[in-house]
Specification:
The protein has 415 residues and is of the alpha+beta class. It has 14 helices and 20 strands. The chain has a 7-stranded antiparallel beta sheet with strand order 17-16-13-14-15-12-18. A 5-stranded parallel beta sheet has the order 6-2-1-10-20, with helices on one face. Strands 3-5-4 form a 3-stranded antiparallel beta sheet. The protein is elongated and about 85 Å long. The model has no long low-confidence stretch (mean pLDDT 93).
Amino acid sequence: MDRQKLIVVGGGAAGMMAAIQAARAGCPVSLLERNQKVGRKLYITGKGRCNLTNHCSPEEVLAATPRNGKFLYSAVSGTTPADVERFFTALGVALKVERGNRVFPASGRSADVIDALFGELRRLRVPVIQARACGVRVQDGAAAGVETDGGYLPAGAVVLATGGVSYPATGSTGDGHRMAQALGHTIVDIKPSLVPLVSPDPCCGQMQGLALKNVVLTVKDQKGKTVYREMGEMLFTHFGLSGPLVLSASAHMREFGRQRYTCLIDLKPALDESALDARLVRELTGGANRDMANLLGSLAPRLLIPQLLDRAGIAGEKKAHDLTKAERRRLLEVFKAFAVEVSGPRPVEEAIVTSGGVKVGEVDPRTMQSKRVPGLFFAGELLDVDAYTGGFNLQIAWATGRAAGLGAAAYLEQG
């Protein structure tokens, strides 16, 4: 009986999907999870609201996956965003689509997603075993079970869906990478993606806590090439930059060490230079006798004003009527391109997503089965694939989880 059994290691998005799909296919499944509850990382995704997927085509998912998107063609074609939406709707989770085609539970509660998945596991009578996996046992060249901190669990197939190394408090501590490597798999360098950025510029600490909305962030490499440009929200912190725009930008900044990057913030993207210049002239004329430090309140947040003046070389106590045309021009340029150098990402533990992982060339893209160890399957963030923000990474988790679950069930049926 054990030779017909599947053990799924990891009770996150990919693991639960794999277990559900295998069980629906008639395969006896056990889900191994080190935490007391499944779905720990799902609780915190989308700021606790769980951005389930993106309401888009499979092609758009692959386009939003800069890391090995082609590998996912079969999985994402087999489990499209529309399929994911139907899956959760059938489980009783009402959905809504928000800005950027992001799909959330209508309740705005990630707990509803986790409860639905756990409820389906219970309906399918999939036991959840609380234990930490230490390794995959191989017998006669094929996966034969899982070694845990509570003993050996025999099985005919194993799905590893243990996540990456981001947010280690949720249980993603790299165990899966170590287990895969011990079985001969190549682990591509682990790096943070969708992560805040560190800056040596003291302006960040001086503006700590300042959030900017409706700004355009442009990231350029040391050759002046634009690697990212988008409108949205961002935040200054004590270490540098954060917020949705910055997290998305970090996925495009993969060459730290070999490249230097500069973030350019257009603080007034709705106004072109001539319109902004006309606005500045009106402010200067209307407040001709005011100090420059007190004049820009209608154009910029309080914490930002000293930085703008400093970069434009304008004394805060200078009267508006004394401002030269050259100074006004410099102020205009700073408004349209406030530059912040960045030196690197924050630690991988603070990243939303891990870049790197099990080398995809060693995995069958249709079934997620290892090409090195029959009966061993991979799913989710453990693989060397990652995407931009917007629900794409969870879409990858559902798609690869389903492919692995069905692939493992088919493997066991053949065996």
